[in-house]
Design a protein that fits this description.
Erythromycin esterase-like protein; 9-stranded mixed sheet; Emycin_Estase; Hydrolase/PRTase-associated; globular; 423 residues; alpha/beta; UCP036794_erythomycin; 11 strands
Length: 423
């Protein structure tokens, strides 16, 4: 089987020698409304720079209207305001990225993303009254920050719902803005705040069209309220049901993504940046056996064929930014050669160079065998990776295309890690 797989990769892959070759990928996509771009780690330079080049082409040539990333909504709003010109004070993308103070800050406070942010700002400035490309964070972790934003927005518009919001959020005060404390209290002792935030979210959703649209105020209020509600559910669940909390997180990301799409209306076209484990269809992996779903699977199920295109990423060896445990400072770690018999090993055996592989009706059957596919998280111990870093996957079902960078380098963080720990 291994020899046949390597030969199939040789027969159906194309070399990736530079940005111009990515035009072949854009052509293969057709005309989707969602393009999901993965990554095999949160700390690899080439995954960011390659996705940035694809993103520029999709915005410029295909009319894509926004980028949605695996980041917090409040922090990413700083980027959105900068690229759309709402922010009149910040002078550079580098200054804006200081908004990312939640661990692991290197995911977005890095040198590689700066070029894309500045490009988006220049692109938007050239379009005058036309739809401007946005940048949004759709993750679920921003419980406290999103609470602050809801209060701030309601105060700014002098909303009669302000006192109700303040009352709802007093439920969280005993937990000192510590996710861990809230998770234990709500998950084990059933002392949660679900009723309070549910009432507030219902109120805000009911009045969705009433709130001001100026500088996307209504969208910010809606998604921040949703983030509070889903984050509460996530932290309440994670202590006792790890698989269920995973599903809550990914369903929130889909809900946030769809909320942004509704905001843009018929012009909406989304580019999603997340880890392979979120965008690569979970039903084509052993995650399915554990009852886990993810963004890629849900978005595919919600949309007609041809409207969703999923691109996975991988590497054979190199270096990566990661930490030894949750919340501690990062360092540059060596990524060992891919485990023998894995997908990444087969891609390397088919030729030690960068390449792209497009899955289609003519070749999908050649890549139907389940195979280990490497996934590196923000916590990573290379010496133990063979015991838990390879996800059994049917690659031609999990993705529509795969980009393989044979040897990769670590991401370049802007600042040294010293932010507070967040679960």
């Amino acid at each position: 089987m291994e020899r046949n797989l390597i030969q199939a990769i040789k027969d159906h892959s194309v070399p990736l020698t530079g940005s111009a070759d990515l035009d072949k990928l854009i052509q293969q996509m057709g005309d989707p409304r969602f393009v999901l771009l993965g990554e095999a780690s949160h700390g690899t330079s080439e995954f960011y720079t390659t996705r940035a080049e694809i993103t520029k082409k999709l915005i410029k040539d295909k009319g894509f209207t926004f980028v949605a990333v695996e980041g917090d909504w409040p922090a990413c709003q700083a980027i959105n305001r900068y690229v759309k010109g709402y922010d009149k004070d910040s002078r550079s993308a580098r200054a804006v990225l200081k908004s990312f103070d939640r661990w692991p800050t290197w995911m977005w406070a890095n040198e590689e993303i700066i070029d894309l942010i500045e490009w988006m700002k220049e692109y938007n400035e050239s379009r005058q009254s036309q739809v401007k490309a946005g940048f949004y964070g759709i993750d679920v972790y921003s419980l406290w920050e999103s609470m602050d934003e809801v209060i701030r927005y309601l105060k700014e518009i002098d909303s009669p719902d302000l006192e109700a919001a303040k009352q709802a959020f007093t439920c969280f005060e005993p937990f000192n803005r510590q996710n861990e404390e809230y998770a234990v209290s709500a998950g084990i002792y059933n002392e949660g705040c679900i009723d309070e935030v549910a009432k507030l979210l219902t109120t805000i959703q009911r009045k969705k069209e009433v709130y001001p649209h100026h500088e996307e105020l209504n969208l910010n209020l809606q998604v921040n309220a949703m983030a509070v509600y889903n984050a509460e559910n996530y932290y309440r669940t994670m202590v006792v049901h790890d698989e269920r909390s995973w599903n809550i997180r990914d369903m929130h990301m889909v809900d946030a993504l769809n909320e942004i799409m509704d905001f843009y209306g018929s012009a909406g076209k989304a580019i999603v940046w997340e880890h392979n484990t979120h965008v690569g269809d979970a039903s084509a992996t052993d995650m399915k056996d554990a009852g886990m779903i993810n963004v890629g699977q849900i978005i595919r199920e919600q949309n007609p064929p041809g409207h969703v295109y999923v691109v996975g990423f991988g590497t054979h060896s190199g270096t990566v930014i990661a930490a030894d445990e949750w919340g501690v400072n990062y360092d540059v770690k060596k990524v060992p050669s891919a485990m023998r018999g894995s997908w990444e090993d087969a891609m390397h055996q088919a030729g030690g160079y960068d390449k792209m592989l497009f899955f289609n009706e003519d070749n999908r059957h050649l890549f139907k065998e389940k195979i280990g596919h490497r996934a590196i998280g923000v916590v990573y111990k290379p010496e133990y990776e063979r015991f838990g870093n390879y996800v059994p996957s049917i690659m031609s079902d999990r993705y529509d295309a795969f980009i393989f960078i044979n040897q990769t380098k670590a991401l370049h963080p802007i600042t040294i890690e010293k932010a507070p720990i967040t679960m």
